[in-house]
Amino acid sequence: MSSASSDIFDAWWGWPPPVLDPAGPYAENVVVLAWALIGMGVVVTAIVVAALYVAIKGPARWKAKLGGEKAVWIGGIALPGVVLTTLLVWGLTLTASLTEPVPENAMRVRVTGYMWWFEVEYLDADGDVIIRDANELHLPVGEPVVVELASEDVIHSFWVPNLSGKEDMIPGRMNELVIQADRAGRYGGVCAEYCGGPHALMGFVTVAHGRADWNAWVAGRRGSPTEVADQDSPGVVPAITPPVAQETAPGGLSGRQVFMDSGCGACHRVAGTEANGLVGPDLTHVGSRLTLGAGILPNNRGTMIGWIGDSQSIKPGNRMPSYDMLSAEELEAIAIWLERQR
């Protein structure tokens, strides 16, 4: 497999997410219920088709029985009543475990929906943000995680089919959903509620880590004490750390300088720089993310250049303008600088 096709495969791994392949306890019961409803739907459809055939092509004696009062009472009232009541009771019993209390010390993550991307904030025991990210959710394997769901604009819906049911994200309201992954891997997520133009291109990736990998990921993201403090203070211009700013692209262009001169920092935040915008995704660790554009592109230099230069062709209607006024060299310089933000 070539490198390019491998990149695409990696980006689409889990996309679209399979809905009948549970990888955790909070998805298993949902899938069992889904299979039961699918099976019941097939049986009911078969009965209706058979009855229709008898009504049209069947012998006169069968047609008379089908239209008789007894058939109406049994097939039209008693049977549906018993079947639907049984399904309702069984389904409520089966899914009752989804609302059971989780341990008080369970990890908590706040996910906020925007048109058309997801902000992800990892919280400590006091509810303070310790890591801020976008369009990518990382979890430890085998542990329930409480996801606090909010929205800044319209109604969205958070759904990782392998790991949970779905829950709405409503402006002015905080909903909660518990998810858990019992095996390491990547799991695709989507917005499951139509939220406007690029709704179908609003996705994210969930990555489940073994405990050792999880600890290493957290340590890498939290970085130095200075950076942690910056992460906790969105909207406040943090102290500038110059080493990254001095890196230049071939030709001598400074990607950081082009980024700032183009006004990207008005919408995006990069911890340790003067870029501190809150409108778009936080780009502090964008170089380590698997995808760009909320789960729709593999993250590499080529797609980064394409996204910055012509995002409206890739995801029409998204809120980032196409920077087609920048030269190829300037776009490459920004992409090189951003891919170093890890």
UniProtKB/TrEMBL annotation:
Keywords attached to this entry: Copper, Electron transport, Heme, Iron, Membrane, Metal-binding, Respiratory chain, Transmembrane, Transmembrane helix, Transport
Gene3D superfamilies linked to this entry: Cupredoxins - blue copper proteins
Domain Cytochrome oxidase subunit II copper A binding: 104-220
Membrane topology note: Multi-pass membrane protein
Pfam families: COX2 (PF00116), Cytochrom_C (PF00034)
Family that this chain belongs to: Belongs to the cytochrome c oxidase subunit 2 family.
Cited NCBIfam families: CoxB
Domain of life per record: Bacteria
Record localization: Membrane
KW tRNA processing (keyword) present: no
Domain Cytochrome c: 250-342
Catalysed reaction equations from the record: 4 Fe(II)-[cytochrome c] + O2 + 8 H(+)(in) = 4 Fe(III)-[cytochrome c] + 2 H2O + 4 H(+)(out)
Protein name: Cytochrome aa3 subunit 2
Function in brief: Subunits I and II form the functional core of the enzyme complex. Electrons originating in cytochrome c are transferred via heme a and Cu(A) to the binuclear center formed by heme a3 and Cu(B).
Major location category of this protein: membrane
CDD domains on file: CuRO_CcO_Caa3_II (cd04213)
Membrane-spanning ranges: 32-56, 77-98
